[in-house]
């Protein structure tokens, strides 16, 4: 709806794989959406974490100090604090 060009049968969005920016300036892709309609799965959440780094670097000029994953998450908040959010 924002004008990202889609190509081929799988409707793969047009984007720069180095920055994840689409053909629409300022619109970036992350995760499985970068593969379009996947007939055979090539992108999964698990292998898409680097997209966040690429996007961060494209916007700020720097690779993030740390990219987290499920193992690196730290849930130090109490349930009450989470519910209050």
Keywords:
extended; 20% helix; 2 helices; 85 residues
Describe this structure in words.
With 85 residues, the chain is mainly α. A hairpin with a 4-residue loop joins strand 1 and strand 2. The longest helix is centred in the middle third of the chain and has 11 residues. It has one domain. The protein has a two-stranded antiparallel sheet with strand order 1-2. The chain starts with 5 loop residues before the first strand and ends with a helix.
Q: State the share of residues found in helices, binned by percent.
A: 10-25%
Low-confidence stretches: none
Write the element-wise H/E pattern from the N-terminal end onward: EEHH
The biggest sheet amounts to:
2 strands, antiparallel
Radius of gyration: 16 Å
**How many distinct beta strands?**
2
Describe the structure concisely for a colleague.
The chain has 85 residues and is mostly helical. The chain is built from two helices and two strands; from the N terminus they run ββαα. The protein has a two-stranded antiparallel sheet.
Secondary-structure map:
Elements: E1 6-7, E2 12-13, H1 50-60, H2 79-84
Antiparallel strand pairs: 1-2
